[in-house]
């Protein structure tokens, strides 16, 4: 990627600083925000890597505002900024915040009823709104693609861009279609944003966008968070873990802040929840098995300060932007350094000292190894699923996913092979949809990438190496912040 060089843009526009003050109430930009904004205004594709809580969204919201000031009632095809975001749950919050500031924004996703979606489609097509938030899966809808052909996309913003890379920790198959989306939209100026990306993932992001390295500017703010205290404590059993959790919670309660305790397994979370309640420690629990409305209520209670402690799986993830989180504890070993850094990055966004404590139990590694194994099917498994969908399709349609899982000898909840397979079959247009009944209808052959055992073995090995890096971090005798910087390929000044 190109080295940064001075950006040039139309000086007749409202200045970024003016927009910042007028719409957001800030008098100055943080860190590299202005540099990123100027590069986007100069129509340069830009990859922004910036620590969580540093205001990455302003890097595309300000250009969207400045673009809107040039619009006239006579524009035949009014421009719009399109934001690709992975989480439906966050879109409403982000749009509500923009609307409260007088910024014309909306979202379109599956949470809306058919009538409301059609209404918003019509409004977008008519030239309304300066920012539109969607998930990448929205491009599967022909009616959405048709609407977007009626607007000129001046800027494509890809949030949580590490989801693009199959080597990233939050891989989202539909993110790999972004090159196709960019072509459909007329190859607009593109900004990709993330808090974590190794050099390998950075290269993959550029490639998946259909760009060459010299076409994309890299703005890397670094990952240093001086106010975070990183600790690792080796534990030997549940009693040991519980004691450390209780100590951390009680030692930080006087700071009038909040905290998150992360678990890998729901059953472990629930077991510790019962024991914490016995100790009189009030909390809420958040995980993927809860109904969406329940998860939403718990998140709102935490964000609004009604609950100060949440026990959570990694489902409580991207978009948790609360300033006063005083501690983030990992009660079980995370699966990668990327995931670990993302999660501890939720602490101390107000700049005050905050504790990030990893409770290291070697027994937890077996759980993560199992997750990695079952998240990486081999070609034989892909072919088995394909065979059932084509040669035993009546039975699959009659008895459903659970029956299919049984036939394929599922090894329990940690066995995500079938879920992963359907997502990839959907991504490569092998089946009609990723969910029943669409996922049962085969419309194409398996792609070569799902039959290449060498490639699949490489992906498995890389996931295992990511876990081993966590082990190295836990056992690191020196400065753990230096270890993290080295992992992400960044210089470090103690």
Describe this structure in words.
With 494 residues, the protein is of the alpha/beta class. It has three domains: 16-220, P-loop containing nucleotide triphosphate hydrolases (Rossmann fold, 3-Layer(aba) Sandwich), CATH 3.40.50.300; 228-361, P-loop containing nucleotide triphosphate hydrolases (Rossmann fold); 371-451. 42% of the residues lie in helices and 14% in strands. It is built from 18 helices and 13 strands. It has a seven-stranded parallel sheet, sandwiched between helices. Helix 5 links the parallel strand 3 (105-107) and strand 4 (131-134). The radius of gyration is 23 Å and the shape is globular.
């Amino acid at each position: 990627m190109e080295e940064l060089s001075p950006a040039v843009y139309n000086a007749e526009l409202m200045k970024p600083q003016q927009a910042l003050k007028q719409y957001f109430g800030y008098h100055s930009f943080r860190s590299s925000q202005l540099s990123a904004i100027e590069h986007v205004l100069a129509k340069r594709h830009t990859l922004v890597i910036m620590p969580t809580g540093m205001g990455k969204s302003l890097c595309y919201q300000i250009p969207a505002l400045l673009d809107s000031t040039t619009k006239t009632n006579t524009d035949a095809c009014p421009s719009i900024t399109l934001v690709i975001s992975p989480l439906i749950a966050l879109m409403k919050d982000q749009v509500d915040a923009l609307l409260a500031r007088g910024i014309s924004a909306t979202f379109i996703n599956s949470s809306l009823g058919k009538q409301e979606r059609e209404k918003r489609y019509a409004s977008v097509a008519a030239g309304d709104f300066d920012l539109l938030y969607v998930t990448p899966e929205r491009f599967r809808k022909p009616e959405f693609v048709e609407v977007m052909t009626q607007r000129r996309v001046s800027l494509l913003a890809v949030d949580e861009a590490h989801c693009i890379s199959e080597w990233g920790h939050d891989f989202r198959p539909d993110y790999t279609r972004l090159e196709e989306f960019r072509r459909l939209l007329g190859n607009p100026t593109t900004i990709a944003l993330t808090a974590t990306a190794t050099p390998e993932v950075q290269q993959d992001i550029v490639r998946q966008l259909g760009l060459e390295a010299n076409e994309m500017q890299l703005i890397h703010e670094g990952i240093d968070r001086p106010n975070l205290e990183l600790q690792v404590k080796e534990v030997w059993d549940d009693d040991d873990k519980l004691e450390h959790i209780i100590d951390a919670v009680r030692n930080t309660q006087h700071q009038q802040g909040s905290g998150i305790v992360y678990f890998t397994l729901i059953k472990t979370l629930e077991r510790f929840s019962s024991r914490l309640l016995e100790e009189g420690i009030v909390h809420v629990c958040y995980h993927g098995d809860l109904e969406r409305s329940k998860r939403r209520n718990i998140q709102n209670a935490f964000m609004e300060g009604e609950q100060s402690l949440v026990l959570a799986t990694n489902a409580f993830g991207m978009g948790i932007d609360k300033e006063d989180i005083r501690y983030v504890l990992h009660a079980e070993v995370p699966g990668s350094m990327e995931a670990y850094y993302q999660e501890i990055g939720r602490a101390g966004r107000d700049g005050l000292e905050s504790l990030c404590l990893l409770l290291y139990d070697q027994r937890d590694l077996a759980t993560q190894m199992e997750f990695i194994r079952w998240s990486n099917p081999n070609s034989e498994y892909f072919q088995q699923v394909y065979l059932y969908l084509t040669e035993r399709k009546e039975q699959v349609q009659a008895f459903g996913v659970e029956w299919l899982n049984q036939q394929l000898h599922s090894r329990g909840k940690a066995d995500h092979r079938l879920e992963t397979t359907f997502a990839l079959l959907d991504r490569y247009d092998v089946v009609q949809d990723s969910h029943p009944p669409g996922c049962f209808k085969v419309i194409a052959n398996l792609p070569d990438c799902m039959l290449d055992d060498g490639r699949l073995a490489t992906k498995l090995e890389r996931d295992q190496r990511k876990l081993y890096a966590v082990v190295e971090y836990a056992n690191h005798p020196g400065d753990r912040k230096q270890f993290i910087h080295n992992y992400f390929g960044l210089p470090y000044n103690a």
